[in-house]
Amino acid sequence: MSIRIPHNSFLLIVAFLPLWTMAQPGQFISSARSVSSTSRDKAALPGDASGVGTESAQAARVMPLFGERAKSGEQIEFEINFLNDCDQNFSNRGEASQFFAARGWDYLGESQLDTAAYRFNLAWLLNEKNVDAYWGLGVVCYQQNKLDQAIRMLGKGLAIADTNAVLMTDLATVELMQFQQKKDPTHLADAETHLAKALTILPDNATAHIKMALLQYTKADYGRAWEHIHQARQIDFSSIDLTLLNELIAKQPDPKGVFK
């Protein structure tokens, strides 16, 4: 996704807490996805089953991939009816999957996380290769501060679209945040790997440069951090994180003398 996601900074280490902000409702991750122009789904469309079914079934509908658990008879019946309804309302299941994923992004933009999660689940049910289904569920988990699940969902999406540089940047951003919370250097290493690959695929990804600058700042490699700051500046000056910039200047003056 390009996805509709405002620029955001995240926590890495407690010592640099002023550099970061935690996820808040209404925020996505790091990229910028456009809003779908398709009209909002109506109550009569397939998959609208609010208040229908057992409490357990209702809970599963807003869990990533329906909770990834054995299906009950109720769930199987629901899926059969839902797929049949979609077959009657759409040209094919791929089209239906894209429709429900688009609705998921719409609801995410309104901070309706449960409704968004349900729509992404329906998109996945229709097409397990729909990257947006995993990406959207990853964003939902991120907004709920369920970072382990967010990383897993985004990783599933990346396994399908392994050259999507924007998705890689989103995954790396969450891995950086997870590093702050768990202090596991594996997360930092994974984030660096994903950002490096993202920049190889899409060198003009200003957001990826800013995230890489932040990562290098965390590693105390201030020279490389400045390199990425300047690359981001040349691509999109508005992408620069002013808090990071001030912290970096305090550690090492700008070698190019642009920022003082």
TrEMBL record:
InterPro entries: TPR-like_helical_dom_sf (IPR011990), TPR_rpt (IPR019734). Gene3D superfamilies: Tetratricopeptide repeat domain (1.25.40.10). This is Tetratricopeptide repeat protein.
